[in-house]
Amino acid sequence: MKIIKPTICLLIAGLFISTTNQAIAQDDAAPSKAKAIMNVSYKKTDGVLSVKVAVSTKVEKKNMPVDGAMVSIYMNDVKPYDAKTGEGLLGRLAADQDGKILFEMKDNVKDILKGKHGYKFIAEMKDNPKYFDKQGEVEVKDANITITVTGKDTLQTATARLTEFKDDGTEAPVVGAELKLAIKRSFSLLPFGGDGLKTNENGEVSALIPSNIIGEAGGTLIVVGRIEDNESFGNVQTSKSIPWTILPKPIAENKRNLWSTGKNAPYSLVIVSVTIIGIIWGLLLYLVTFLFKIKKLGKQPQKK
Amino acid sequence: MRDIIKPKNDAESIEMLHKFNQDMLPHKFGKLGKAWVVFLLIVIAFGLYNYTKQLRFGLSVTGLGDTVSWGIYISNFVFFVAISLVGSLITAVLRLLGISWRSPITRIAEVIAVASIVFAGLIIIVDMGRPDRLLNMFMYGRIQSPIVWDVIVVMTYMSISVLFLYFPLLPGIAYCRDHLKNIPKWQKWMYKFLALNWQNRRGQYELVKKAETILAIMIIPVALSIHTVTSWLFETTFRPGWDSTNFGAYFVSGAFMLGAGGVVCAMYILLRFNPKFNQYITFKHFDRMGRLLVLLSLIYFYFTVNEYMMPGYKMKGDEAAHLTELFAGKYAFMFWGVQIVGMIIPICLLFFKRFRKPFPMFIISICVIVGAWFKRFLIVIPTMLHPFLPMQEITEASKVYNPTLPEWSITAASLAGATLIITLFVRYFPIISIWELAEERGVDHDLIYEHLND
C-alpha cells in the first residue's frame, strides 16, 4: 500500500487539475472577450412575422448558448427608429437560457410593415462585457402560402399555393420551390405527400391527406403548408383547420388507468405493488434488527 | 490442485479450521496486484474526467440523439443487472437445492453481485445526463411506469445482496479484526466497526443462519423480477425487436449464463494469484461450474432461438428491416460473432470434460462475458435505429449511432469500478467463507463456534 497511497493522491490531484485548468485559464484571461456566434432567421407563421436570433459561443470546440445576452433588432439599418420610414431599431431583447430570442411582429409593428414586401432584419449584440460586438442579418422577400382542401370526409386532397409579392403589390406564383405539406400533431408536424414536393407553374403542390389520421378533439384536422430555409423567402408556414371525422377517443382524466397520472393509478396496481414492496422491505428491516441483536450478543459475557 | 479432504476426528477438524483461517486471511498485494489497482484507478479517473465534461456540456458529448436515446450506457446497465443475478444463482438457488460444493464460491458470486448492482444503479444516473432530476423520479414517479418499477427493484436487490454478503462475512471480519497484525489504524477500525462485536457465539451464528435462509428465499423472486422488469423497460416500448413476450425469460436465462461465466473467470484469477486456494477451489468446482454453465447456456440458446427464429421466419413489416440488419446487414458480424463465440462454441466445448478444466474454462468464460456485453449492445442499439415512425426531417448524423470517447471512457470506468470493488474486497476480506467451508467439509458446528477464532 505504500506505493498505492501516493499514486492515488497523484491521480486525484491530476484529475482535479485537469478539470479545473480551464477555469484557471479563463480567470487568467478574464479581461479579454470571447467571440460570439450569431444566427439570424426569419419566419412567417400564419401571417405573423418573427425574427429568431440564436447566440452562442465556442467552448472546447462545442457550441454553448450565451444566456442573457442583450440583442437589438433593427429593420434595414442600424440606427434609431425612424417613424417616417419605419426603419431602424424595432426592439431590444435578452436571450433565454438556450441563447435564443424570438422577436414577434404582431400589433406592435403592424404599421411599420404596411406596404413592404421585402425585409432586412439586423440583429446586434453590443457592449457585452464578456463578448465582442456581433451582428447578424437576414434579408427576405415576402411570400404567402394559401391552402385549399377539396373532397369529403376522410378522402380529401390538400393543395398549397405559394405566391410572392411583386413591387407593385400584386401576387405571383412561385414555380419550382420545395413546398411541404404536413398535419399538425401535439409536438411536431407529421409530413405527408412524400419528400421533395415542388410547386408547379401555378405555384401549387397537392397531396391526398392520409385517411387514417386522427384529428383534433374538436372534429378538425390542421393541415400545414410550409417552406423552410428558402433563400428568397426564409421560413413561411400557413395552417388551415378542416372538418375531420376520425376523432381521438376522449381521455378520461379522472379515471384510474395505466396511462393516467401517478395520482390516478389503478387501485389494483397500487395495492399489489405497495403490498409486495411493504413485505420485502419489512423483511429487510427485520433482518437489519438481526445486526443489532448480533452486536448485543457479542457484548454479553460468554456462558460457560 | 487437490481433492477435498474431510476430517476424521475433532483434532483433525480443529487443525483444518486453523489451516483454513491461515489460508483465508487477506494478504497485501504484490507488485502485480498494485499495478492492477493503479490501472483500474487510471481508467476510473479518465472516466470521471469525461463525466465532468458530460455534466458541463450535457449529453451532447455523447453519440446519443433523438433517434438513439439509449446507447452503450443502457446496454452496460443491462449487462450489470444481468451479471448481478449470479448472487442469487450461486448463493440462493444452489443453497436451497442443497448443493454443498458451492461453499468456496458463494462469496465470489456475492461480491460480483454487489459490485455489479451498485454500478448498474450508477450507470443509469450517468445516462440521465441531468442527475439532479433523479429526485423527480421519487417525487413525481408514476407507479404505472416500468422505469419506477426498475428503480425500486434495483434498490431492493442491492440491499438484499449487501445483506447476503455481509451476514456470512461477519465471522471472517472478526477473524481479521483479531488476527491481522501490523495493519494501519483505519483498517483496524474498519474491521472493528464491521465485525459488530462478533464473538463466535452460538446465538450469533443462529441469527446469521436464519438471516441467510430468509435472504436466500427472498432473493430469488427479487432477482428474477429485477431482470424481468429490466426486460419490460424494452418490452413495453413498442419497437421492432422489443415487442416480444419472450423477453423476460430470455433476459433472465442470459443473465444466469453470464453470471456463471463471471464466477468462473473470478475463480480462475483467484487461483492464479493465490495458489493456496487450490485446496478449496478444485477441479471439481470447475467441472461442476462447467456443467452448470453448459446447462444455462443451453437454456439461453433455447430462448435465443425463440427470440429470433419465429420473427425471422415471418419477417413481418418493420421487424424485417431490423432483423435483416442483424442477420445480414451492418450488425451481422457482431450478431453472429456473439451467437457463435459467446454461446455456441462454449456449449460445444463444455460438453467435453477436458474443456471443463481451469484454463479452458477461463477462456470460455471470457468469451461468454465479452459476448454477453455485445449481446446487450445488439438488444439496445439496432432497435433504436429502427423506430416505427419514419425517420424524416432529421440529419444524417441522427440516423447512425457511434459512441463517442467520453461514452466509451465512462463505460470503461464503470466496468473498472465494479472490478475495483471486487479487487479491494479480495484485498481486505476473506474471499472464501471459512465457517461455511468447514461445514461443507463435515466439521461439527460446536467445534466451529469454539475454535473458529482461535
Notes on the protein architecture:
- The complex is a heterodimer of chains A (304) and B (454).
- With 304 residues, chain A is an alpha+beta fold.
- Among the domains of chain A are: 36-141, SOR catalytic domain (Immunoglobulin-like, Sandwich), CATH 2.60.40; 143-243, Immunoglobulin-like, CATH 2.60.40.1940.
- Chain A has 3 helices and 16 strands.
- Chain A has helices spanning 4-28, 110-113, 267-299, and strands at 36-45, 48-59, 62-65, 70-75, 88-94, 100-105, 118-125, 134-141, 143-152, 155-165, 171-173, 180-184, 189-192, 204-208, 220-230, 234-243.
- The model of chain A is unreliable at 15-29 (pLDDT under 50).
- The model of chain B has no long low-confidence stretch (mean pLDDT 89).
- Chain B has a single domain (10-451), classed as Formate dehydrogenase/DMSO reductase fold, CATH 1.20.1630.
- Helices cover 73% and strands 0% of the residues of chain B.
- Chain B contains 17 helices and no strands.
- The chains are: A alpha+beta (304), B mainly alpha (454).
- At the A-B interface, helix 1 and helix 3 of A face helix 2, helix 7 and helix 9 of B.
Q: Key features?
A:
heterodimer, A: 304 residues, alpha+beta, Immunoglobulin-like, 8-stranded mixed sheet, 4-stranded antiparallel sheet, 3 helices, 16 strands, 39% strand, flat, B: 454 residues, mainly alpha, Formate dehydrogenase/DMSO reductase fold, globular
